[in-house]
Every structure is written in C-alpha cells, then in structure tokens.
Amino acid sequence: MKKLILLTFSITLIFICSCDDTATTGGTLTDPFNIGGGGGGTGTVTITISSRTGQQGETIFSGTPSAAVTLLVLTVSVPAQQYTESFNFDGTTVVSANVTEDLVQYPANSGVARGQQWTFQFQGTLASNGQAYNVTSNYTIP
C-alpha cells in the first residue's frame, strides 16, 4: 500500500511540476483556510485548501493561492495518525493567483476519512517580488 501511495504522489508531483505557467501577477497573500481552521506564517501568504473524491475513490487535495506563487516545499501531516510527508518542488514554476491546482492525492482505502484534521505547510516565494513565505494551516476533511 505504501508503494502505491508513493507512486501516486510521484505521478502527481511530476504532473504539477511539469506544468509551465508564466503568469506573474502580483499581490499579497494572507493565511487562508476558511474550512477547518487557520494557521500562521511569514510572508503574508494565503493558499486555500480544498478536497474532493476522484473517479476511483481517491482523495485529492488542492490549493488555491490568492496571488501568484512558487512552491519549494509542501509538508503534509495528519497529527492524530503521526503521519508526515514532504514534497519538494522546483521553486520556479508559478502557480497563478486564484487558480486551483491539485497538490497531492491518496488512493481509496488509504485511511483518509471525514473529520480528520490535516496540516499543510507551504514554503516558497511570491512570484511578483520573490518574497519568501512560510504558511502552516489546518484543514478538516468535510
């Protein structure tokens, strides 16, 4: 099962990292997550988390930044299950403002369940000015 999850993550990350987007719209970000709680961080960054169930029962987590950003590291954790995993990004691919991008997905029957509290920690830079940000936020699966 761990190999299947790792393969799924790898394919998702390759897909996300291979997308080319040259948008450089500016703006500021502040901490988001109107669903499931808030967080804190530096660099005034907001990335709203959402989740959905895919066609084969997998859970897909997505993020929507309020300004164009690049991602360096995403750390995902479920504290109650003592699960933590980090994903490295290229730090140059721009995720456009107000555009939802899939971040990670977990196969059906992988243990993802309603009511679980997940933590997403984003590290990267604002595309408009290169300012670093570090935002940690909580998300409760509806």
Q: How are the SSEs placed, and which strands pair?
A:
Blueprint: H1 2-18, E1 39-42, E2 47-53, E3 59-65, E4 69-78, E5 83-88, E6 94-95, E7 101-106, E8 117-126, E9 132-140
Antiparallel strand pairs: 1-9, 2-3, 3-7, 4-5, 4-6, 4-8, 8-9
State the secondary-structure class: mainly beta
The domain tally reads 1
Report how far the terminal alpha carbons are from each other: 24 Å
Please compute the radius of gyration using only Cα atoms: 14 Å
Shape assignment: globular
User: In DSSP terms, counting alpha (H) and pi (I) runs of 4 or more, how many helices?
Assistant: 1
Mean pLDDT: 77
Enumerate the spans where pLDDT stays under 50 for 5 or more consecutive residues.
1-41
Largest sheet: 6 strands, antiparallel
What is the chain-wise order of helices and strands? HEEEEEEEEE
How many strand elements?
Answer: 9
**Which percent range describes the beta-strand content?**
35-45%
Q: Percentage of helical residues?
A: 10-25%
Structural notes for this entry:
The strands form 2 sheets. Strands 1, 4, 5, 6, 8 and 9 form a 6-stranded antiparallel β-sheet that branches. A 3-stranded antiparallel β-sheet has the order 2-3-7. The chain is globular. The two termini are 24 Å apart. The protein is mainly beta. Helices cover 12% and strands 43% of the residues. It is built from 1 helix and 9 strands; from the N terminus they run H-E-E-E-E-E-E-E-E-E. Mean pLDDT is 77; it is low at 1-41. It has one domain. The longest helix has 17 residues, at 2-18.
